[in-house]
Amino acid sequence: MKYIINQSNLFKEEALGVGMGEKEEKKERKDSFKITDLPGIGPTIASKLEAAGITELMNIAVLSPAELSDTAGVSEAVARKAIQASRKMLNLGFESASEYMKRREELLTITSGSKNLDNLLGGKGVETKAITEVYGAYGSGKTQLALSLAVNVQLPAEQGGCDGKAVYIDTEGTFRPERIKQIAEASGIEPQKALKNIMVARAFNSDHQMLLVDKIAELIKEGEPIKLVIVDSITSHFRAEFTGRGQLADRQQKINKHLHDLMKLAEQYNVAVYVTNQVMANPAMMFGDPTTAIGGHILAHGSTYRIYFRRGKQDSRVAKLIDAPNLPESETVFYITEFGLRDELKEGKEKD
User: Fold this and answer.
1) What is the value of pTM for the model shown?
2) How many CA atoms lie within 13 A of 163 on its CB side?
3) Which fold has domain 2-93?
4) In this structure, which topology does domain 103-347 adopt according to CATH?
5) What's the chain's Rg over C-alpha atoms?
6) Which terminus of the chain is more solvent-facing, meaning fewer CB atoms within 10 Å of its CB: N or C?
7) pLDDT tens digits for 134-187?
């Protein structure tokens, strides 16, 4: 027997025994649930919730009855039933590590163009359901990697891509379509097609930047095959708008929310998130490299993979893996060429 949600009622239906497997069927039902499927939540109340930014079952599942009651204008009893139903639909709880490992088989990867850099990240490049952060001084290659990934995500899986589109949130005015065309030609992708598969938005302040992340979820729901989200850079507006120690706590809280929204997007839609970060010189560092990433511990903990880029010898770039959940700290060398990121400079002339 199986259970299907229809409006506010749960009813039994006999299993068909044909078609998709049980796990795929459960996943499809889970993804198709809406707020209006909850008991006591009709179109009018759903509109109130959406106006308050509550658009998904997970938003309701984590609320308390009092919070949902105040927001939706319903009694706490109705709110409690809706919350309980949402948690059942989402099947929140524990699972075995073996089941979790099976779900990780759904992960996709995007090649950087450099085998050395891909190996630094585990062998295949930037992965989905994760935030990959790269920080470094200007000219270290952060944006060049972003542009390369935006093209490479369009490649088929056997060539290191995801057959998907990219969204590029540009906060510093560094996106260059001319460079996209150049990298696309080297990757065997028709340049105009490559440009059409990249959606670009210029973020003018931190609020606009955060709003654009919400817009990405809407695009995916509308059927856009987005598999990569780029934010270049993630800290630029926050750094400019929140100045001085008195505003540090507010800035960090806002960055924290932004990171959680990005991670939620990555987890929910199997999307890779690549963010660049600015740096500063630490005056307290007497010896060694004084370069420090902006964003403090909030950004450090929020990123799944953290990499430091710096210039190396003979026009090379050095990438150092600072933090990863399953990889040791290590570093490698790559070059920025006219063809994108490569392991050797002779594969193309250097690009700034």
Assistant:
1) 0.79
2) 3
3) DNA polymerase; domain 1 (1.10.150)
4) Rossmann fold (3.40.50)
5) 22
6) N
7) 999 999 999 999 999 999 999 999 999 999 999 999 999 999 999 999 999 999
